[in-house]
Please model this.
Amino acid sequence: MGGVRKVPPMLAKREDKAQKTLHDPRWALVRARDPAADGRFVYSVATTGVYCRPSCAARPARPENVDFYATCAEAERAGYRACLRCRPNEAPAAERRAAEVAKLCRLIDESEETPSLETLARHAGLSVFYTQRIFKAVTGLTPKAYAAAKKAARARGALEGQASVTAAVYDAGYGSSARFYETAARRLGMSPKAYRAGGKEARISFAIGACSLGAILVAATTKGVCSILLGDDPEALVHDLERRFPAAELVGGDADFEKTVALVVGLVEHPRRGARLPLDIRGTAFQERVWRALTSIPAGSTMTYAEVAKAIGEPKAVRAVARACASNPIAIAVPCHRVVRSDGALAGYRWGIERKRSLLARETAS
Model:
């Protein structure tokens, strides 16, 4: 006799379980191995008895074998053990690398002589190749370049308080004044004497334009854009630039420079289009690490101050990160407006909260 074929209860239960998983938004994140979902939840696999972070590179599980848990503790109470591949009960790999690099940065900071790459690798218990690789991935600099930046930062501080450039050179940790002068123009953007004298003899081109956020000032050395300032009063923006470079030669930009200003205005009005701007970023080694991290935040996205601190390997330096953001002299191109408080609220912005809100809104909408 014909009739409706009955599905065995066990198969029906598995099918229901599979459908439940497939319709859970977390399943799409697991299938995509999305690292941004790490820390938000874990998932277990009944056939292996383990639980994993969403980005785990293990072979995809069948949906009927998967359960989701808010925390590792919940998964372990359910009888699952941590996956040995993705180690969900430990800090994410990116955070572990950042912590390792932070230790190496401290070693460089505290050493009178720049440690060799081999010394750094031995200190970290890693290979020379891997040490170089993760250091550059986290800081954007090689260990050698980071050490040079640190020395340059010390030199900037010393130059501001020393009567003698030579004394400042040795105080900063350079073995000879000749070595310092070889790299000074690149690191300071001008000669040591000029920097110490507030930019004396330095030539900085600038121009003021208008955009939907008000007045905008763009200034550049021969190396690249060194300031992008926003405000309501064009004259106040010029005074701001003068305070930063009190002894520099400030000259009005020519027709070619107007193209740079147009690119910057384009970044304001159409942030997702992007633009490759040469930048002359000058700050302390810590500030440069923060500002470099900010340039990696894509338009339409935000990070918290705590997340930026973790990204540079200094998870406890949240306030220092906030200060670095507040000190950023290159608006838009170094997007400090994409950094928010841990609760998602907009914190202070050097050029006004309303401008920050407007920038984020147009980036999300564009």
User: Anything to note?
Assistant: The chain has 16 helices and ten strands. The CA atoms of residues 81 and 176 lie 57 Å apart. The first strand starts at residue 42 and ends at 45.
